[in-house]
Amino acid sequence: MTSVVSAGEQRRFGALVFAGGALGAFLRWAFTVDTGVAGSLWPLLVVNQVGAFAMGLLVGALPFVRDIGRDGSPGRRNRLRVSLGTGLLGGFTSYSAIAAATVQDAGGVLGPVVYIVGTVVLGLGLARAGMWCGERLVPGDGHVEGEDV
After folding, report:
1. Feature table: binding site for Na(+)
2. Quick one: pLDDT band at residue 96, thresholds 50, 70, 90?
3. If both were cysteines, with which of 10, 68, 87, 131 could 60 make a disulfide (CB 3.0 to 4.6 Å apart)?
4. When comparing pLDDT for 135 and 107, which is higher?
5. Does the keyword Membrane apply (predicted)?
6. What are the helix (H) ranges across the chain?
7. Could you read off the pLDDT of 28-66 as tens digits, one per residue?
8. Binding residues
9. Is residue 3 part of a domain?
10. Residue 14: which domain range?
C-alpha cells in the first residue's frame, strides 16, 4: 500500500533525514577517530556491523510502534524510519567509506576480498539478528494497542 505524502511532509522528512544523517556521520567519524587505531579498517568494520544490527532492530520493531504521535498526528513510523533509518543509520554506516578504505588500507589481493566479503556476510547476519530482536521487543502478540490491524 502506497501512501500519498504532501510536499510539506516531504520537506519535513528531508529535514529529519538531514539532521539524522549529520548526527550519524559525526558519530561514525568520532568513533573511528577516538579508537586510537589510526590507519586501521577495524573501527569502520565495527561501525558498519553495529549499524547493520541497529537497522535490523529498527526494521523489526517499527511494525510494533504506535503510528499515532502524542499530538494525534499519524505517520510516526515514517518519521522514525526516515530520521533513524535513512538519516542516522545511513550517515553512521558507509559503503563508500568501506570501499575506499579497503582499497587503500587492506593491502595485497586477498585482504580486501576477505574484508569486503566478511563485512557483507557478518552485516547480513547481524541485520537479521537485529530484526529478530526488534520483533520481540513488544510483549504479547505484537499488536499495538489502540490501532486496527
Report:
1. 90, 93
2. confident
3. 131
4. 135
5. yes
6. 7-34, 42-61, 76-80, 90-92, 95-105, 110-135
7. 989 888 776 666 778 888 899 999 999 999 999 999 888
8. 90, 93
9. no
10. 10-135
